[in-house]
Amino acid sequence: MNRVITEDMTIKDVLDRYPHLYGVFEDHGLHFCAGCYVMLASTIGTGANYSGLKPADRQALLAELNRLAFSDMHEAGSASPSTA
Question: Out of 10, 53, 72, 78, which residue is the most buried by the measure of CB atoms under 10 Å away?
Answer without folding.
Answer: 53
